[in-house]
Design a protein that fits this description.
about 35 residues, alpha+beta, two-stranded parallel ribbon, two-stranded antiparallel sheet
Length: about 35
């Protein structure tokens, strides 16, 4: 399974929720791609 995450950023720093989404995606497993 492949997972695509759309990451939100503010002034060059990723939003805090992005880390939670990445952790959830890792728990699911498979390939993870992040689009910033």
């Amino acid at each position: 399974m492949s997972i695509l995450i759309l990451a939100e950023h503010h002034d060059g720093a990723l939003a805090g929720a992005t880390a939670h989404v990445v952790a959830a995606a890792k728990a699911i497993g498979g390939d993870i791609d992040v689009l910033v």
